[in-house]
Amino acid sequence: MTDLPHGFLRWKSYAEFAGAQALLAQEWRGQQAFQQQWLANARERVLGGWCAACGRDALFALDGAVGEEPNWRESLTCNHCGMTARWRSSAHLYALLAGAHAPGPVYMTEQATPLHALMRARLPGLIGSEYLGPGVAGGALVERHGLSLRHEDVTALSMADASLGAILSFDVLEHVPDWRAALREFARTLKPGGLLLLTAPFHFGARDTVVRARIGADGGIEHLLPPVYHGDPLSTDGVLCYQEFAWDLLDALAAAGFARTEVISCWSAAYGYLGGVHPFIVGWR
Ligand SMILES: [Zn+2]
After folding, report:
1. Per-residue pLDDT tens over the stretch 5-20
2. How far is ligand 1, taken at its centre, from the CA of residue 243, in Å?
């Protein structure tokens, strides 16, 4: 098993996490104290640290007005490479796990983002895609916003069985109503020993996924909770969040065919990953 640097923690199950809650609460108070003290003392909202995306000492700029709760995950932007904390930690963790997965092409469920550009420079042959609407054939190239983008529906991928070494899916699965079908497709297309590295809203302290919206019997969207929209690189309207995951996502991964699952969390002042812990859901085929 790959050793991870300080700040990254591996969790096998909800039970393991629940058993460590007292310890985590203490650690979390320490993290909160660090963040509050830094916010109070920083003359400019800029944190010094090591950027794992561009591999050097950097300054991370926190967005947002003084007095408002900052969006730690979507800012703390590196002064060299422009990557946010979310992008930096995602690229970082993949680099740490890359040597452990089956060889083969890497597929990323995004293509029109700075993170895809960064990964593409590192991984020749990286496959990227966007969802470009119903009626487009999987694997087809479509001109959109001056870019030539590959269309894929993650619930019906065009890739062959057992053809991929790794799949990276960052903040996509919460927008897919039939997310279990997407997990089955990820399992189908990965080689034995292949890696799925996934992020999505994840309730660390909860067992059960929260369904916010679903597709009703009439094919329309049925809202069970007030709608929440996330940013979308291809549209200014944003994209609906159908669900926020919890530990039962690991059970769903096992049911889809993943041999081993875990959650890897990270929080690190040295790397500029602040806010709550950043959870990554990991499946090994
Ligand atoms: Zn950087």
Report:
1. 999 999 999 999 999 9
2. 31
